[in-house]
Design a protein that fits this description.
Layout lengths: L12 H12 L5 E5 L2 E5 L1 H17 L7 E5 L4 H12 L3 E5 L5 H11 L3 E4 L2 H11 L7 E4 L12 E2 H14 L2 H8 L6 E6 L9 E5 H14 L7 E4 L6 H13 L2 E4 L6 H8 L3 E4 L1 H17 L2 H22 L6 H21 L6 E4 L6 H9 L4 E7 L3 E5 L12 E2 L4 E4 L4 E5 L6 E2 L3 H6 L7 E9 L5 E6 L4 E2 L5 E2 L1 H8 L5 E7 L7 E6 L1 H7 L10 H6 L2 H14 L12 E3 L19 H7 L1 H9 L4
Helix pairs in contact: 1-2, 1-3, 1-9, 2-3, 2-6, 4-5, 8-9, 11-12, 12-13, 12-14
Length: 607
């Protein structure tokens, strides 16, 4: 891709975003809900805030190249502070609110962060044991005024802005000079990897990494100034952060949701036309819809099940380019009126498409939503590469992560590992020269660690993580993510991890969907344990889920099929150590934590 400075487009993230906010002049550029009401923030107000925060930071001594950490849930303040940090040529170090205190401390110390922004008292209370021992941290700045009292010497964002606004009124050229001194190849952020296989590493991304991605995605996806988006994924994650920049550049009105808990409510209120999400959200929505549709009883349940079969079959034939029988077309239209219209209303009624990333989305789930008239475009990217590929509305190949975006090269090596090259790829791992060198081929291709292939039309398919493939005792390799995506289609399954390295066959550790299980089976009698423990030990529950899992994995090769399952009473969680902040499974931790149970599963002591 041509250097953005040669095209007349600003070469930095804040340069592009501030120009776009001014050009589009949206009265609702960013929105948040406060005390039951939606508060809309105009583009010009955001520009003033970015300038004020940047100059406030400058008054505190923040200079180009300094690292500033940001610990907050989703809210407009996150984006304002992010753009302010980058406007000075400083480096944003985002931290997940769910990260353990020891991880917070590691990131602050490893990055050498001078300042830390924190949203409020609750988030700080969790992170405090990791923040206070950091000797190099000069100041903590709170978004919420009540948080400042929780830490000695803390500032509020309001105080910082007031100070910066005074400077901007007196000498407006100071901000412009600072922004003008930032270049495309300057470091914009250090994002720490999830650490699924060891100690987290800081991924260094330049302004060009993001700006090239912003322009590339804009050229390939129909994103319009009339679009309305709901932002729910953590802005600390590369996916949502890049998407925010793309939305900002294209004049999309962005509404912030602080957590998954409010998504249903916000979807109905915001009525987005475009939205990013992760498969976990679609799985939860689908299971709720199925539960509601099948619990009606009588003819209504029969109509729902019929519509689901019709929609999935229609979507599958359409996706594969096969002829749709006239009768099926008539049935699809009837199903749309009777059942699927309610699905569409449930996501706001005017959604043009979802973009899904972060993990594999099962084809059956894709077909279910497509059949209902809700398009999900699966995409692909990594912290080290920003967003690499995605399906297009006019070319949506279910099961693939779509076509690479313009200017990004993708290929596979002899072992099937996916390699990526382009201006979007990271500069390297912070202070890890050996790991950086090992991550690239001699001719500059980044080794993703993902295994996959490309079809004849250029669509990229991800099979699994190279490091997560495991070998059975018969020498066959199993791709656990593929098997897990099928099992998650069960209404009785909330979470699943497939195990079996060195064993004769794979097995599954499953956290049940407790509501679905309770509806299907009577409560266990005579148990001294809690209801969940009792159900997880129930032979009837194991058999019920085992039958469902066997049916769902039947299309797989014989050696990949799941014939043994164990039910867990506790969910995999970030606090429990089984999940990363981006909800990726730490398989090594699960192997260690549930080693005894896995042994019982194979020894035959467990069902």
């Amino acid at each position: 891709m041509a250097d953005t400075q040669q095209t007349g487009i600003p070469a930095t993230v804040p340069g592009m975003c501030l120009e776009a906010l001014s050009r589009h002049a949206k009265p609702d550029a960013l929105s948040l809900k406060q005390q039951g009401q939606w508060l809309h923030i105009p583009g010009d107000a955001i520009i003033r805030r970015v300038r004020a925060v940047a100059l406030g930071l400058s008054a505190l001594g923040v200079r180009k190249g300094d690292r500033v950490a940001l610990l907050s849930e989703n809210r407009p303040d996150w984006s304002v502070v992010d753009l302010a940090i980058l406007s000075l040529g400083a480096v944003n170090v985002p931290i997940y609110t769910t990260q353990a205190p020891e991880q917070v401390r590691f990131i602050l110390e490893d990055s050498g962060a001078r300042l830390l922004f924190v949203s409020g008292r609750k988030v700080f209370r969790h992170a405090r044991p990791g923040v206070e021992p950091v000797a190099g941290l000069e100041r903590v700045i709170f978004f919420d005024t009540d948080g400042a009292a929780a830490h000695e010497g803390a500032l509020t964002l309001f105080e910082l802005e007031q100070r910066g606004a005074e400077l901007d009124r007196a000498e407006p050229e100071v901000f412009d000079r600072a922004l003008g001194g930032v270049g495309a190849q300057d470091l914009a952020t250090i994002i720490y990897t999830s650490g699924t296989t060891g100690e987290p590493k800081g991924v260094m991304l330049t302004h060009a990494s993001f700006t090239s991605n912003m322009l590339s995605i804009t050229s390939a996806l129909p994103i319009r100034p009339t679009d309305v988006a709901l932002s729910v994924l953590p802005l600390s994650h590369i996916f949502e952060r890049t998407v925010f920049y793309v939305f900002c550049w294209n004049g999309v009105s962005v509404h912030y949701a602080p957590s998954f808990d409010v998504v249903g409510e916000y979807l109905r209120e915001v009525r987005p036309t475009i939205m990013t999400a992760v498969p976990r959200l679609f799985e939860k929505v689908f299971h709720k819809i199925v539960k509601r549709g099948t619990s009606a009883g009588g003819w209504r349940s029969k109509v729902f099940k019929w519509a689901l079969r019709v929609g999935q079959r229609h979507a599958e034939l359409e996706d594969k380019g096969e002829q749709i029988p006239p009768l099926l077309q008539i049935q699809q239209e009837a199903a749309s009126r009777l059942v699927f219209s309610k699905w569409r209303e449930g996501v706001g009624g005017r959604l043009r498409f979802f973009v899904s990333g972060g993990a594999p989305l099962s084809p059956a789930l894709s077909y279910a939503f497509l059949g209902a008239g809700v398009t999900i475009l699966q995409g692909y990217g990594m912290t080290e590469t920003c967003i690499v590929a995605a399906n297009r509305p006019e070319d949506n190949r279910v099961g693939s992560v779509g076509l690479p975006f313009p200017g990004i090269e993708v290929k596979t090596d002899d072992e099937g590992e996916i390699l990526v090259r382009g201006p979007n790829v990271m500069k390297g791992y912070y202070d890890h020269k050996e790991e950086t060198a090992a991550a690239f081929t001699e001719d500059g291709w980044f080794k993703t660690g993902d295994v996959g292939h490309m079809d004849e039309r250029g669509h990229l398919f991800i099979t699994d993580r190279k490091k997560e493939l495991f070998k059975l005792s018969n020498g066959k390799y199993v791709a656990p993510q593929l098997v897990e995506s099928l099992i998650k289609e069960s209404q009785y399954v909330s979470q699943v991890v497939v195990v079996g390295a060195g064993r004769k066959a794979p097995a599954a550790l499953i956290v049940p969907d407790w509501e679905a299980l309770a509806a299907a089976l009577p409560a266990p009698q005579g148990e001294e344990h809690t209801p969940r423990v009792a159900r997880s030990r129930s032979a009837e529950a194991v058999k019920l889920i085992q039958r469902d899992v066997a049916k769902l994995t039947a299309p797989l090769a014989d050696y990949e099929r799941i014939r043994r399952v164990a039910l867990l009473s506790e969910e995999f969680s970030i606090d429990g150590g089984e999940l990363t902040p981006t909800l990726k499974v730490k398989r090594r931790v699960i192997d260690e934590k549930y080693g005894g149970l896995i042994d019982e599963l194979y020894d035959g002591a467990a069902p």
